[in-house]
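Annex B. Sample input.
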Amino acid sequence: MIRDGYAARWQGAEYEASPDGDNVRLYRPDPSEGFDEVRAGRFRRVVPLSEVDFAYVRTTCFWRDEPFIVLGEHDGWLRVEYTGGKSTVAAELGLEEFDYGVYQGWAPRADVSELREYRV
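Annex B, continued. Sample output.
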């Protein structure tokens, strides 16, 4: 599973999460005690920040020998964002300029190397 966002460990389980002042919102895809349905397939519980191990989870890789952050995955392709900082390299790789100086594209998962997840 490719992750790029907040996560929290609470009571022995890990959840997708988001900060909320002194609290953390925990999310899960199915019903569970203490979790309220916020929409179909999305359940939320708010807990104190002091009760969780809270972190930002980021997945990185190399594609065509260049460094990337992995933003998502779909049908064997990874949505990647170039972190090498060279616009000429981004152009050579055929990446789109998503925002000023931010280059993204799709890479076949089979073609990436050093796929790693980090908690920061």
